[in-house]
Amino acid sequence: MSTENHHLPQRIKLIWRISALGSLVVFGAVTGLIWLAYSYWDWPFWLVVVFGALTIIEFIVEVALVPYRYRFTRYQISETAVEMQSGMIFKKRVAIPIARVQNVTLNAGPLLQGQKLTKVSVATASTNHGIEGLELNEAEALRDQIMQLAREARHDQA
How confident is the model over 124-143, as a mean pLDDT? Predict the structure, then answer.
């Protein structure tokens, strides 16, 4: 059984950049609403400046951190657990015991579908964790592997 760390496909970086652009649009709309409030109801102008600056800074930081996000996002499947790691400054490591896995689903929103990628969601009785941005054939093989290991683990416990 291979227990090597796997990285996501390079195309996930484009998805993350498009997501950052979506954040820019949303925060830009909020800044526009604050500008309207300034124009019509005498709100302080510094609110417009602060929200506008924060919107631009957030976008630049999010886009600049995409390569680092990619570098530190990985997953690993072993006979005992599905492990996921993410984060640069605040590292998050999740280990889901194989015996606790109840369901593995594949889903993809429009952005992932546009890049021919999918998300693998691993569900237990209490939580749901995902590996975002896998190739469809890799995701299907991963789903089958995890479910097979889960069946074997439950059979061994019985």
Answer: 91
Token code pair at residue 86: 């993410």
CA–CA separation, 139 and 107 (whole Å): 10
Whole-model pTM? 0.80
In angstroms, rounded to a whole number, what is the distance separating the alpha carbons of residues 77 and 137? 16
Check whether 1 has a pLDDT greater than 80: no
CB within 8 A of 59, min separation 6: which ones? 20, 21, 23, 24, 27
Q: Which residues contact 11 (CB under 8 A, 6 or more apart)?
A: 115, 116, 117, 133
pLDDT digits (tens, 9 = 90+) for 143-155: 999 999 988 887 7
Give the 3-state secondary structure of residue 135.
strand
